Amino acid sequence: MVLNLIPITGTYSGVLGLYYFYLIVGVGKSRSKAKLPNGDGSQQYIQDIVAKSKEGNDSVANIDLTRYNNVYANLRSQLNFNEFVPYMLILSAVMELHGANSKFLNGLMLTFTLGRVAHAEFGLKAKDFRGYGRLVGALTTMSGIIIGSIGSIYLSNKACIDGYLFK
Prior knowledge:
By secondary structure, this protein is mostly helical.
């Protein structure tokens, strides 16, 4: 017998996992294109500055910083995703295990997922890392965590809270 304990969280874990893989590949491609073995390019930039100063050239104006922008955007997209998604999946699992309404939980996780995609694709990867997706992603992430946290507290203590409030 197979137990289907948390199908909503399981579904979004898979969707978010596939998107995370896409972000990982993006980091690898951008590092390869910029000829960086690792990191965000800051170490290479420092090495370029040191090399220029050793040549007696104090001007760093001709060092191509844009070479590192795509690496930085992809790396921050991946790292930012990694900072928030695991916690939201835990909140989702707690709520689902405690009987959260499936439409509510699906709506919460769909909004969160779309916000994470907007943050990366239309925020950090936009010109100067300031696309509208950053605001959309930040708002959906923060509201998702707040709603998920309150939902987890309530659903985990529902009998006690309802007994106290509705005597």
